[in-house]
Write a structure and sequence with these properties.
Length: 260
């Protein structure tokens, strides 16, 4: 018999950037564990394909086209998510972008603002909408909720030529820690995931550069790139009742890269 707290039947997860990569890896695991899933993404075709994949697990699934950098879109899409599912038990603020490798001296304001608007503002808008909903539920006698944000190894290591990206991810960790403290009284937990080198559309150019791969791979004790499914178990755990006392953490998933 499976460990009962990992049965997510009746729980609803919202995953931004859920139509591919790490987001879809988490969504698949949650659906396989019985949870209902709403994914947000900016590419309608990718959203549709992801929904078809997730439907195979037999739970309720839907998608919404949403640019998380737009506060109104986030509020409207969250309201629509509640209209469809009735509640959100876990919110995974996973949508993010990176940038071309430019020297810090060459990053202009437009690019700085673009990365911050999605990676930091988008997480703020998304988690704020989810937290409001969870607090309202708690005040009506239904406490609990899970806030999860995807940060990055770059938040705690030297990310040369990627300072804007690293800055957003460091901000995400600080936001999560503050949320963990402020909303624990409502039964709400908040944790951050820190991916290392994971095979996704975001990293395909880097991984396709042989010089980069030859230099980085020997530094990964696991001797492989991470995969989106490596985040599935963590997503199920964080959605589940098993993680009710686990909050304010930064969970590094990198095959041992940072230690080595």
């Amino acid at each position: 018999m499976a460990y009962k707290p990992f049965d997510l039947t009746g729980k609803v997860a919202l995953i931004t950037g859920g139509n591919g990569g790490i987001g879809l890896g988490m969504a698949e695991a949650i659906a396989q564990s019985g949870g209902d899933v709403c994914i947000w993404g900016t590419n309608a075709e990718k959203n549709k394909a992801a929904v078809e994949t997730l439907k195979a697990h037999g739970t309720r699934v839907s998608s919404l086209t949403c640019n998380v950098a737009d506060e109104k879109e986030v509020k409207d899409c969250f309201a629509e998510t509640l209209s469809q599912f009735g509640r959100v038990d876990g919110c995974f603020a996973n949508a993010g972008v990176t940038s071309g490798k430019k020297s810090f001296l060459d990053i202009d304001d437009k690019e700085w603002q673009r990365v911050l608007s999605i990676n930091l503002d988008g997480v703020f808008y998304t988690l704020q909408a989810a937290t409001r909903h969870m607090v309202e539920r708690a005040e009506k006698g239904d406490p609990g909720g899970r806030l999860v944000a995807t940060a990055s190894l770059a938040a705690i290591s030297g990310a040369a030529r990627n300072e804007h990206y690293a800055a957003t991810k460091g901000g995400v960790i600080s936001m999560i820690r503050a949320l963990a403290v402020e909303f624990a009284r409502h039964g709400i937990t908040a944790n951050a995931l820190l991916p290392g080198w994971i095979e996704t559309a975001m990293t395909e150019n880097a991984f396709g550069w042989q010089k980069f791969a030859d230099n980085v791979m020997p530094r990964i004790p696991a001797r492989r790139w991470g995969k989106p499914e490596d985040f599935g178990g963590m997503a199920v755990y964080l959605m589940s009742d098993a993680s009710a006392y686990h909050t304010g953490d930064t969970m590094l998933i990198d095959g041992g890269y940072f230690l080595f």
